[in-house]
Fold this protein.
Amino acid sequence: MESILLKCFTVLLAFCGMEAVAWLSHKYLMHGLLWNLHRDHHKKEAYGFFEHNDFFFLIFAIPGMAALLFGIRSGYNFLFWIGIGICLYGLMYFLVHDVFIHQRLKIFRHADAVYLKAIRRAHKMHHKHLGKKDGECFGMLWVPFKYFREMKSNRKNEITISDH
């Protein structure tokens, strides 16, 4: 039992740690040294399903896959469980960012949860900046509280208007 809890904790810690990695790499790499790969995500340079920005999927998949591989080769040690957490974060990132926010697949279009609306709003605020400077909201799953308050306020106003 203790071993299962430790493995679950390791997966959860790796998953949560990836939000910090995503925030830092988005702010300092994507909006810095690697802006040439990320730029077309803010301002379309070509039209099609894929963007240069999609190369980041490969860049971020490498540590997760390496942790899985080395963890398996070492008898499913802690690296395997870290790899699981990283890969789960990657899946969540794809579902939230590419599917839900940018609608690259036309599903989850009418989600009404306050948290999901706050994520969408924060990301919209991030994209209002077309250049590499002056950005905001670099994370994916951790949303500043002001967007929760804004979405809750909007929901209360919608309820009040529909009651009349």
In short: The mean pLDDT is 83. The chain has six helices and no strands.
